[in-house]
Amino acid sequence: MNSRDEFLKKFRGDALGKIDRQSSLEEYFQNTTLRPILNLQNDLILSAFQIYIVQNKIPFEIYSTDKKNTVIENAILKDVKFQNLLKGFAIGLFTADEFTLYSSASSSLNKRIRSMLIERLQSQLQLI
């Protein structure tokens, strides 16, 4: 393992979430790689979404909680450019081995990333 990979694993910290022998490869990857990275990148994710709502002139602050949740979901699921930006925040912190694994299962892992991003932003509405 090279020094970049060692640094990234140490910098991100331990796995978050339950991992056991029955965990699927995607679930294992989610808890050992994706959750720690998204936790680390949380402030950047919040900032990116705040910039997104300003740039797209979305009157987010006057919306109801349900409407805010819908805006978050639509931003991540329907705006491919924004979705790719947020995925890039995570992918850029993968080790070489993690990137290889991600590449082999990118479709299912991208769904997990999108879902986790939506949940993360929706659970922090008071900070947006």
Automatic annotation (TrEMBL):
The protein here is known as: Glyoxalase
Can you tell which superkingdom this protein's organism belongs to? Bacteria
